[in-house]
Design goal:
The complex is a heterodimer of chains A (114) and B (117).
Chain A: E1 4-7, E2 10-13, E3 18-25, E4 31-37, E5 44-50, E6 53-57, E7 64-70, E8 73-79, E9 87-94, E10 104-105, E11 109-113
Chain B: E1 10-14, E2 19-24, E3 32-38, E4 45-51, E5 56-58, E6 62-67, E7 72-77, E8 86-93, E9 106-107, E10 111-116
Parallel strand pairs in B: 1-10
Antiparallel strand pairs in B: 2-7, 3-4, 3-8, 5-6, 6-7, 8-9, 8-10
The chains are: A mainly beta (114), B mainly beta (117).
């Protein structure tokens, strides 16, 4: 276990549904991230939160809406998704300290959009 | 148009052999590098890291080598075991002039390592 948990682990949703992914880190980190991992593609950074403030939105469609209520929790709210959004969604956290910043990943949520 | 998926490089080795996984990184300003291992159904797991002021770093059964001249990174796994079978990713990070990370890792496409008993 890396100290980063994600729920649910698997999710199937229709294009009209609204769902949320949850991430929690127990490492005392101050930065959290959402990544998308599609088959045969490199990991794609979606959002970065530093001390609860969003510092990066990597041109993500508005049907993905992140929320970071505190440094330990991160959500990804999903609505009106498309089938091409089916992927593994990974949460990570890190301790912002100089340039040696290792990100630790959760197990991911496997999302299927029908 | 249709996007073209990546064909991940693959490496097949026998149990007990040494494995070398290579990575070419893109940004000459990158100053911190990480290797991750991702097993099926799991998130990437940290293996070892190295800063740009080093050429080599050793861990338990793993060694990372950095060649900044040609922007090349390698991961060496000694006495490879079946449990080492996974996808291995390199990631690069760079800092601002003040030495603070931007926190944006750029990942390579990954290499599939298969270890045969």
């Amino acid at each position: 276990e890396t100290g980063v948990t994600q729920t649910p682990r698997h999710l199937v949703m229709g294009m009209t549904n609204k769902k949320s992914l949850k991430c929690e880190q127990h490492l005392g980190h101050n930065a959290m991230y959402w990544y998308k991992q599609s088959a045969k593609k490199p990991l794609e950074l979606m959002f970065v939160y530093n001390f609860k403030e969003q510092t990066e939105n990597n041109s993500v469609p508005s049907r993905f809406s992140p929320e970071c209520p505190n440094s330990s929790h991160l959500f990804l709210h999903l609505h009106t998704l498309q089938p091409e959004d089916s992927a593994l969604y990974l949460c990570a956290s890190s301790l912002r300290r100089g340039n040696q910043e290792t990100q630790y990943f959760g197990p991911g949520t496997r999302l299927l959009v029908l | 148009g249709e996007s073209v998926g990546l064909h991940l490089p693959t490496l097949s080795v026998q149990e007990g052999d040494n494995s070398i996984i290579n990575c070419a990184y893109s940004n000459s300003a990158s100053d911190y590098f990480i290797w991750y291992k991702q097993e099926s159904g799991k998130g990437p797991q940290f293996i070892i890291d190295i800063r740009s002021n080093m050429d080599k770093r050793q861990g338990q059964r793993v060694t990372v080598l950095l060649n900044k001249t040609v922007k090349h990174l390698s991961l060496q796994i000694a006495a490879t075991q079946p449990g080492d079978s996974a996808v291995y990713f390199c990631a690069e990070n760079f800092s601002n002039a003040g030495g603070t990370s931007y926190g944006k890792l750029t990942f390579g496409q990954g290499t599939i390592l298969t270890v045969h008993p």
